[in-house]
UniProtKB/TrEMBL annotation:
Protein name in the entry: Diguanylate cyclase/phosphodiesterase
Lineage of producing organism: Bacteria, Bacillati, Actinomycetota, Actinomycetes, Micromonosporales
Domain of life: Bacteria
Coiled-coil regions, chain positions: none
Source organism (scientific name): Paractinoplanes rishiriensis
Ranges of residues in domain EAL: 24-277
Length: 278
């Protein structure tokens, strides 16, 4: 695993390992406990159709219910976890929670596709597709009910290896989304060669789209690119009704953001769904 990681950026990896503080090592140790004790929880943020407002899925976002420090956000521990082998069991734990939740919702009559974020370290692992397949089987969930969100950065660090892994995931029937699209360096060639289903436009182009002609131009270009490559598009970070209206007018099919809903605990998401349908 370490060898694979260092192939994607030996200098960066070594520097981070060497400078790792005892505080960070303590955090990794605590994370092992957190996974074992079930302290990781998922909140869910709806993906909605811009025209009808219909919810078409929910993105799982991890939080750590820490016994002393309260609810920790991914930014407090995912960056450190990504540089450590713990990202593998952490990814498995999140997948398990999300598929278990999907299954529980389905059993209650709510069919809601789920999306899970996958860190680069979780992706550069040839056993990953097998573990995804096993998790789908374990929860009896159809593969097309699961979207994996990956970032451009994880694709470009070793495109050949990632492509092979993505092809195996796609062969399972899992949907593959590029998260924070527009902020990395993925070339058109990579995009065309990867078996993707969705682009998620980074929120920096979305937040002020109703005020900034430059943002609108970039989103327009991404929409055209997505059409050419036959990919669906989600705009993330919609904070205002004005932004949503512009996206709908431009033909951006799906959106996510605080304007519609913040990420919510599962029960609150169900309540929100009932409130918006009514
Ligand atoms: P992301 O996948 O791009 O998720 C979107 C982030 O933006 C979430 O932050 C979400 O709460 C926030 N957000 C949603 N709508 C809005 C909005 O309208 N305005 C603004 N300003 N923010 C909005 P969160 O939950 O703190 O997650 C941050 C990042 O952590 C995620 O970015 C994702 O890269 C990573 N992450 C979250 N959960 C997991 C996980 O289970 N595994 C891994 N590997 N990474 C995760
Ligand atoms: Mg995401
Ligand atoms: Mg994103
Ligand atoms: Mg983002």
């Amino acid at each position: 695993y370490t060898a694979k990681r260092s192939r994607c950026g030996a200098a960066l990896y070594d520097a981070r390992t060497d400078s790792r503080s005892s505080e960070q090592l303590g955090l990794i140790g605590e994370l092992h406990r957190a996974i074992a004790e079930g302290e990781l929880v998922l909140h869910y943020q709806p993906k909605v159709a811009t025209d009808s407002g219909r919810t078409v899925g929910a993105e799982a976002l991890v939080r750590w219910q820490h016994p002393e420090r309260g609810l920790l956000m991914p930014g407090d521990f995912i960056p450190q976890a990504e540089d450590d082998e713990i990202i593998v069991p952490l990814t498995d734990a999140v997948l398990d929670l999300a598929l278990g939740q999907h299954r529980a919702w389905r059993d209650g009559g709510l069919l809601l596709p789920v999306a899970v974020n996958i860190a680069a370290g979780g992706l550069y692992d040839t056993a990953f597709p097998d573990r995804v397949a096993a998790a789908l089987t374990r929860h009896d969930v159809a593969a097309d009910m699961l979207t994996l969100e990956i970032t451009e950065t994880s694709i470009i660090s070793d495109p050949n290896e990632v492509q092979a892994i993505l092809v195996r995931l796609r062969d399972l029937g899992v949907r593959l989304s590029i998260d924070d699209f527009g902020t990395g360096y993925s070339s058109m060639a990579y995009l065309q060669s990867m078996p993707l289903t969705e682009l998620k436009i980074d929120r920096r182009f979305v937040r002020a789209i109703h005020e900034q002609a430059g943002d609108e131009a970039i989103v327009q270009a991404i929409l055209e690119l997505a059409r050419a490559l036959d990919l669906t598009v989600v705009a993330e970070g919609v904070e205002q009704a004005e932004a949503l209206a512009v996206l709908e007018a431009m033909g951006c099919p799906y959106a996510q953001g605080y304007h519609m809903s913040r990420p919510l605990p599962p029960a609150d998401l169900v309540a929100w769904l009932h409130a918006t349908v009514a």
